[in-house]
Write a structure and sequence with these properties.
The chain has a 7-stranded mixed sheet with strand order 1-2-3-4-5-7-6, with helices on both faces. The protein has a domain of about 120 residues: Gcn5-related N-acetyltransferase (GNAT) (Aminopeptidase). The protein has 5 helices and 7 strands. Helix 2 packs across helix 3. Strand 4, helix 4 and strand 5 form a beta-alpha-beta unit. The chain is α+β, with helices and mostly antiparallel strands and about 200 residues long. Bound molecules: coenzyme A (COA). Coenzyme A binds next to strand 4, helix 4 and helix 5.
Length: about 200
Amino acid sequence: MLETTSPACPMDKEPRVTQLAEKGATDATGQVEPSPEEFQARIRPFADYHEFRSWMEQLVSLYIRAYEGMEQYAYRGRRKIYKYIYWLYRGDPELFLVAWSPEGRPVGFISAHRHWQDPDLGEVGNIHEMIVDPAFHGRGIGRRLFRTVLERLCQEHARVMLWVGAENRRAREMYERQGFREVVQYDEWVKMVKDCSSGSGSS
Ligand SMILES: CC(C)(COP(=O)(O)OP(=O)(O)OC[C@H]1O[C@@H](n2cnc3c(N)ncnc32)[C@H](O)[C@@H]1OP(=O)(O)O)[C@@H](O)C(=O)NCCC(=O)NCCS
């Protein structure tokens, strides 16, 4: 991850493929988590910048919890994570989508930037980051966030790209099932691309 001048996400390592060194859970509110069958996250972007800012500390905590055990693919230190999440939001607020618990707090988010300039692909949609609170893993929240963003990006682009950690099997396999294919690997980062006309990705 890079500072605010360049992309800094586990999914977006390309500008710094030669310098990847700088990487890298319990509900603090004490609320009882709903059971999987009860749970249905609402997905929406932040209403505005002020709402985004008001949740910033919680988003940073959520990020840290989500990358526990996979710190090699994550920013470390609250200040760096804060700047990174700010960079994500600022790049395309409409595609910073949040999964909200029934109590109205963020339990996951996805961030994509439209009109990303990739050196090899030209202008594409780029999905930079996706995280779900571990307490809510396996309930389909990540899939819903991903499909929602993918649908939006494919309305504007023929191709969508992302970067993912090579050993992040769960995420990689999900992306493959959504129609992404590996195109190149730099060190521990894999670049994946989806051809929007291929049709897969919504099954
Ligand atoms: C990747 C992540 C966002 C998935 O969130 P989630 O809400 O748990 O995902 P879902 O419940 O929607 O499941 C996603 C896929 O993983 C599969 N899955 C669910 N639980 C699983 C498990 N324990 N092990 C392996 N795969 C699992 C699901 O079958 C689903 O696949 P499908 O959509 O093809 O059916 C979440 O694990 C996370 O925050 N990881 C840490 C951050 C990260 O790695 N982000 C991606 C950066 S590139």
